[in-house]
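Known limitations

Files may contain more than one protein. Parsers should not assume a single record per file. Below, a two-record file is shown to illustrate correct handling: read the sequence, read the token line, then continue until end of file.
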Amino acid sequence: MKVMQAGLAGLGFVAGIAVTVALGQTSYPPLQVLVSASQSILGQDLAYPPGKPVITAAIVTIQPQDSTGLHRHDAPLFAMVLEGELTVDYGADGTKRYVKDDAFIEAFQTMHDGTNTGTGPARILAVFAGSDGVKNTVMESE
């Protein structure tokens, strides 16, 4: 499994062991940290939107040669490619290609457009750390 940003992966494991010991448990299932980061794939600092927290998990499916359309995320977004290939155009920040098992924190409050550049459907797990007063995704036309 490929991880685009490792960050503090080992610290999460150590913290899990500390919690397990504190709770009196003798074993703890091993963790496979996919991403642990305080910045997006573009190096942007993350900030949770104001309001009541809302976690939204979704599978995004994009057919070959289709795109998401130009949009931004106003809530931090964890993404993992489950199947296929996605190339994201971040404008002045360049493009990045993601394939199956790539995990990353998507660009935050920056317009970008993802295109399925593979031969089959691209399926992406998207987990937003949003709030009740902020849209997770805002299209350019909004």
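...continuing to the second record:
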Amino acid sequence: MNQIEVTVTGKIRRPLAEVSRQFGDVRHHAANRVHPKLTFTILEECGESVRFRQQVSLVGMKQLDEIVQTRRPDGSLESEIVDGTNKGSRLTQTFAPEGADATRITLTFRMPATGVKRLFKALFAAAIRKTVLDALEEDRIDLEERGYPSAA
């Protein structure tokens, strides 16, 4: 199948457990506007999964998606878009220690390249890369500068 795939890596100077917890904390992201260009609405939380609605503008087009995010046994996060503009897309987020107090994050986004996305594949890939890089920087600011709350 024709698809768009974008992988981005980054480093956040916080311990792995804290970074992993923050990335999976949709409630925190929604309440604190960690990503100002995204709007999150939590629909359901159950164990290691959360179902939520996300809205963003990409290449000037409104994107409204319903996402199921699941924490895997290895601590990584898998988000599947189950309904909406980008149905069938997946985001995988993995975390690896980089010393005692830093974490390497790898984000891989895969999207079916259908319709206009197939015609303008390179444009969509560039827009996704920028969106993911911006979001990663916003998470870094939340963790390193604002101080994500410690575990209860």
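Parsers that stop after the first record will miss the second one. For reference, the second record is described as follows. Strands lie at 3-12, 39-46, 49-58, 61-71, 77-84, 90-97, 103-112.
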